[in-house]
TrEMBL record, chain A:
Localization (cell): Membrane
Protein name: Gamma-secretase subunit PEN-2
Keyword Membrane (UniProt): yes
Main subcellular location: membrane
Bilayer disposition of the protein: Multi-pass membrane protein
Annotated keywords: Membrane, Notch signaling pathway, Transmembrane, Transmembrane helix
From TrEMBL, chain B:
One Pfam assignment: Presenilin
GO MF, any single term: aspartic endopeptidase activity, intramembrane cleaving
Family named by the database record: Belongs to the peptidase A22A family.
Classification via PANTHER family: PRESENILIN, PRESENILIN HOMOLOG
Protein name (record): Presenilin
Main location group: endoplasmic reticulum
Keywords noted in UniProt: Endoplasmic reticulum, Golgi apparatus, Hydrolase, Membrane, Notch signaling pathway, Protease, Transmembrane, Transmembrane helix
Topological type in the membrane: Multi-pass membrane protein
Family annotation (InterPro entries): Peptidase_A22A (IPR001108), Preselin/SPP (IPR006639), Presenilin_C (IPR042524)
Example GO biological process: detection of temperature stimulus
Top-tier EC class: hydrolase
Species this chain originates from: Caenorhabditis remanei
Gene Ontology cellular component list: endoplasmic reticulum membrane; gamma-secretase complex; Golgi membrane; perinuclear region of cytoplasm
Length: 101, 383
């Protein structure tokens, strides 16, 4: 869809829906929300609708950053212990590449 | 994946190892005809559902198929990629990431999402489906299947009783778009004005808005080019052997803009300049307010899948000549199809021209050009 054809009310509605959907452990939705509504939130003259969109976009940005930090710290933690060869890491590994000769 | 092979054997049962060319050819032809039968059956099923207005069934079918593609096949693909790149993330991260990817995909395809992302997901799914075909169909069967499906496309769209033509015409009569998950569109959003265009093909120009670009009025013609459509959903339990293959219907739409009335009757050219017909929208418009249809050239996903199959199979022999030849052939075929679309202004199949030219180019390159080039460069005559 092209949001430039939507009315402001509908834009706010869509942004809000994306924000709420992203709150269900779906940071990618937040990322998409950020990129999609960024120009509407920050690059255009302000009015009451844009203020709301701005609110949701900022929320999405903060949420995405939080999830990125969380997931990367988990992954670093996991790989550190996996390199040491602990057994519990084997249970959580997704695939065992056999490597090349 | 073992179960994939098992499913494919269901469709292509003739897999005896043999050296005789005739036998191989006959087996491949048999396989191709069986796949064609499956496709025809699924198409007829879809038409029946559409005719009797079982829209929920069709939507459910589409959602299940796209779920399958987005989650299961992507997981398998990601697994293979990780094995070949030697990276081994935790299952938590991978499953979380895949769940996110799948959910965003479902939202973009079936609900609302950025156009670019929707195009990305549709292309990715088509490529994945093509990969399945390339990997799990037997050698010669692929070529026969391509040929047979193109012939079917031609027949189904152009004959007066063709099922796909019926589908398109019914959709036009009912003033509905064909299901959103089946079409790839390359334009910008545009309120749905199919009604006027179809009823009055010569008069469907909205009068200019004074504040719009002054040199363009617009007429919209829907020229649909649907093709085959089948559904793929493996049975949930291991015992059941039923599986339906899904490819999605093919359709090409073209929107034309004629030059302004001030400049006389212009020619027809395809453009994607967004104009907004605010005033003269027909009353139907209000019903379709939330129902926004993209402008620009539209192509069905089945087209993408079979083009990708052709190209992927051609490149799997590690020869750049054939790959580039097929690529060029497919693109030229597509351009030619679009030109024909503008000329005839009616439903045209998008597969045959591209696939036939691709096949011709592939076999000529493989059997004639490549040995010639190899021979010539080995003897240092050229290159």
């Amino acid at each position: 869809m092209d949001i430039s054809k939507l009315t402001d009310v509908k834009k706010v509605d869509l942004c809000k829906k994306y924000f709420l959907i992203g709150a269900c452990f779906l940071p990618l939705v937040w990322v998409v929300n950020t990129f999609w509504f960024f120009s509407d939130a920050f690059c255009k003259p302000i009015n009451c609708h844009r203020r709301q969109i701005r609110k949701y976009v900022i929320g999405s940005i903060i949420g995405s950053v939080f999830w990125v930090i969380l997931l990367s710290s988990w992954e670093i933690f996991f790989q550190y212990y996996r390199a040491q060869g602990l057994v519990w890491t084997d249970y959580l590994t997704f695939v065992f590449p056999s490597g090349r000769v | 994946m073992h179960f994939n092979v098992a499913y494919m054997v269901l469709y292509t049962p003739f897999v005896k190892e043999t050296d005789s060319i005739v036998e191989k050819g006959l087996m491949s032809l048999g396989n191709a005809l069986i796949m064609l039968l499956v496709v025809v059956f699924m198409t007829v099923l879809l038409i029946v559902f559409y005719k009797y207005k079982f829209y929920r069934v069709i939507h459910g079918w589409l959602i299940v198929s796209s779920c399958l593609l987005l989650f299961l096949f992507t997981t398998i693909y990601v697994q293979e990629v990780m094995k070949s790149f030697d990276i081994s993330p935790s299952a938590v991260l991978v499953l979380f990431g895949l769940a996110n990817y799948g959910v965003v995909g479902m939202m973009c395809i079936h609900w609302k999402g950025p156009l670019l992302l929707q195009q990305f997901y549709l292309i990715t799914m088509s490529a994945l489906m093509a990969l399945v075909f390339i990997k799990y169909l037997p050698e010669w069967t692929v070529w026969f299947v391509l040929f047979v499906i193109s012939v079917w496309d031609l027949v189904a769209v152009l004959t007066p009783k063709g099922p796909l033509r019926y589908l398109v015409e019914t959709a036009q009569e009912r003033n509905e778009p064909i299901f959103p998950a089946l079409i790839y569109s390359s334009g910008v959003i545009y309120p749905y004005v199919l009604v006027t265009a179809v009823e009055n093909p010569g008069e469907s120009r909205e009068p200019r808005e004074p504040r719009e670009q002054p040199t363009d009025t617009e007429g919209k013609f829907q020229l649909a080019v649907p093709s085959t459509s089948t559904g793929f959903a493996p049975a949930p339990d291991t015992g059941a052997k039923r599986a339906k293959v899904k490819r999605v219907a093919q359709k090409v739409q073209i929107e034309t803009q004629s030059t302004s009335q001030g400049e006389g009757s212009g020619g027809v050219r395809v453009e994607r300049v967004p104009t907004r017909p605010v005033q003269q929208e027909p009353p139907m418009q209000q019903h379709h307010d939330d129902f926004q249809e993209e402008r620009g050239v539209k192509l069905g996903l089945g087209d993408f899948i079979f083009y990708s199959v052709l190209l992927g199979k051609a490149s799997s022999y590690f020869d750049w000549n054939t790959t580039i030849a097929c690529y060029v052939a497919i693109l030229i075929g597509l351009c030619f199809t679009l030109v024909l679309l503008a000329v005839f202004k009616r439903a045209l199949p998008a597969l045959p021209i591209s696939i036939f030219s691709g096949l011709i180019f592939y076999f000529c390159t493989r059997w004639i050009i490549t040995p010639f080039v190899t021979h010539v460069s080995q003897n240092c005559l050229l290159y």
